[in-house]
Amino acid sequence: MIYLDNAATTLIKPVSVDRAMLRAMQECASPGRGGHRAAMRAAETVYRCRETAAELFHVPDPSQVVFTMNATHGLNIAVNSLVKEKTRVLISGYEHNAVTRPLRQHGAEIIVAESPLFDSEACLHAFEEQIGQAGLVVCTMVSNVFGFILPIREIAGLCRAQGVPLIVDASQAAGVLDVDFRTLGAAFVAMPGHKGLFGPQGTGLLLCGQEGEPLLSGGSGSDSLLQEMPAYLPDRLEAGTHNVPGIAGLLAGMEYVREQGTEKILSHERALLRTAVEELQDCKAAELFNGPEGTQSGVLSLRISGMDCDEAANQLSERGICLRSGLHCAPLAHKSAGTIETGTLRMSFSPFIGESELRRFMRYNI
After folding, report:
1. Is the pTM of this model over 0.85?
2. N or C: which end of the chain has fewer CB within 10 A?
3. Cα–Cα–Cα angle for 62, 66, 69, nearest 5°?
4. Domains contained in the chain, CATH given
5. Span of 30-34, 90-94, 120-124, 243-247 with lowest mean pLDDT
C-alpha cells in the first residue's frame, strides 16, 4: 500500500503511539476519579499531554489546553462560545464544513473574504477590506484541499488592531507549521490529534484564550456539589470520562513531532510535493493546483482531463494507492478555486512516505 491521504488522517504512526495506547489500556483508569494507582497513572498521562501541547504550541498555561474528540468538536465549542444569532462572522474562502456548518446552525451572518488560490496578498487584502463589518473572524491556517497556507499571523494582527476575536482552525497546520498561540492571540485554536500530530482518531485539542461555554455538561471529577460546570479551565469544557488511551497516543505523537521539529517535517513534505509536481507537470492530461514557493504545505490537488476524480481514485485504490477524491468537506474552497463542479484528486504527504514510494506511484498510468 502507498498511503497518500494524510490530510484526512495519518494512518502510518510512530510505533510509540501504538505502544502508549496499549499501555494506557492495560494500566490507566480514569483521571480525577480516584486516588488509587491506576487513576493516578491516568491523571499523570493526561497532564503530561497537556504540558507537551502547551510547550509545542506556546500556550502560557497547560490548563488552557482542552481535550476534544476532534477539531470539529473544538470548533463547535468555540463557535458556541462566541456566536449568537445574527453575529457577523468573517471567514476565508477556504473554510471546511467544520466551520461553516456550526456558523449556519448558530444563525451567524457569514461574510466571505474571497481571494484567488495561492494569493496570500489578495487574501490579506480581502480581510482588511471587510474586517470592519465583523464581530468575529474564523480562519483556517492551511486549506485541506489545496495546502494553501493563509497569512494567519497578519490576519491575527488585523483582529487585534480592530478588537475582533479570532478562532483559528489549525487542522492542517498542527505538527507541520509552527502554531504559536501567544503570537496569534486567538480566542480559540482548534486542531485534531489524528492528522499531523500522529495521534489516534477520536482525539483533538482546543487551545483556549478564554473560558468558553460548554457543549456538554456532566461529571468533571471536580466540584461535584456544583450543579453547573466549573468556571475554570480545563474542567469547564471537559465533561465525562477522558479518552485516556487516545490521549496517551496523542502524547506519543506530539513527542515525535517535538523530536523531529516542524521545520524538518514541512521540508520533507515539500520535497515530496516538488517531486510529484516534477513527475506530473509533463502529463498533458493532469491539471495541477500548485502554488509559488512557500505558499503550500505537503498537499497537492489535481484533475485529470476526461476522467471523473472518483473513478480515478477508485482505479488507484485497486492498485493499493490511497488518495482522496471529491469536495473534501470543503465546498467553499472548491468554489474559490473554480473546482466546485468536479472536485479534485488529492494526495497528501507525511514523514513516513519516501521519495521512492512516491515515484513508484507516479509510474502508474490512470
Report:
1. yes
2. N
3. 145
4. 2-11+261-362 (3.90.1150.10), 15-260 (3.40.640.10)
5. 30-34
